[in-house]
Amino acid sequence: MRGIFNIDSPLMSFLVKVFDCIGASILWLLFSLPIVTMGAAGAALYTTVYKYLRRGEGRLWQTFWSAFRENLRRSTLVWLAALGVLALLAADALVFRALKLSGYPFGEVYWVVLALICAAAAWTAYLSAYAARFSGGARDVLRFSFLLMTAHPVRALEVLAPILAGAALALIAPALAAVLPAAVCWLNSMVLEKVFLLHMRPEDAEKTTAAE
Fold this sequence. Notes:
8 helices, globular
């Protein structure tokens, strides 16, 4: 029994990670509340998951806060652009759903719009990750994240799956919202980092792989 509760035991290491995920998720939720700052909060969450949770670098609060401040302006601009796309698609979905329920042939476009919404959801994950990992202006983040997503459609589906599963779980059990953001981000980071490695310079890719 004493060995189970040892700080270095697998059980305790797992529990520590769970509590860290809860802490990171709560920070993301709090800093996302103004909605406008959700982009910076997403980049900060990815940085925290990648650096602190996965690689053990730094401390939870300091890592999140530092990344939030660094990405505030750029990621806010990026998020507002993405939010505009999502809002437009959501409005289209409502219109075409109404047409579909009324029996109009054009109502079948509703399914196309839903697919585009899913693609936009995956794109937001790429936006946060790219902003967290690379430099450049807001236009660079928008452009390169979109290019990376479209260049690897299978990986994009792998990114989308945890997002949809997390959203479904949050609806079924709202209490899970305290851990799901970081958990979903962790799963996505494992996919996104593989995509990033394919497009990094060899020396940068080697450093990243060595640090894992």
